[in-house]
Amino acid sequence: MGKSKGKAKQMKGKMKETTGKAMGDVPMENEGRGEQMTGRAQELAAKTAERVKKSGR
After folding, report:
1. Which residue, 40, 32, 37, 39, is CA-closest to 13?
2. What tens digit of pLDDT does each residue of 9-51 get?
3. For residue 16, what is the DSSP state?
4. Rounded CA gap, 49 and 31, in Å?
5. To bridge 6 with a disulfide, which of 12, 22, 24, 42 should be the other Cys (CB 3.0-4.6 Å)?
6. Is 33 within 8 Å of 13 (Cβ atoms)?
7. Would you tell me the crossing angle of helices 3-23 and 26-55 to the nearest 10 degrees?
8. Are 10 and 34 within 8 A, CB to CB?
9. Tell me, what DSSP letter sits at residue 57?
10. How far apart are CA 52 and CA 50, in angstroms?
11. Residue-wise over 20-45: b if at least 16 C-beta within 10 A, else e?
C-alpha cells in the first residue's frame, strides 16, 4: 500500500468516526478510529519502504 492509500483510509475513518459521534453510534465511531489507525500504519510502512529503497539496502 502506498502513502496515498493510507491517507485515504485515514480520511474515510475520520468521516466514519465523526458520523458515528453525530448519530450516537458507538460501534461506527470505534470502527472509524480503527480505520484511522490502519491508515496511519499503512502510511508509515510506505514511508519506511521508501527510505530503505533510497538508502540502497
Report:
1. 32
2. 999 999 999 999 999 999 999 999 999 999 999 999 999 999 9
3. H
4. 27
5. 42
6. yes
7. 170
8. no
9. -
10. 5
11. beeeeeeebbeebeebbeebeebbee
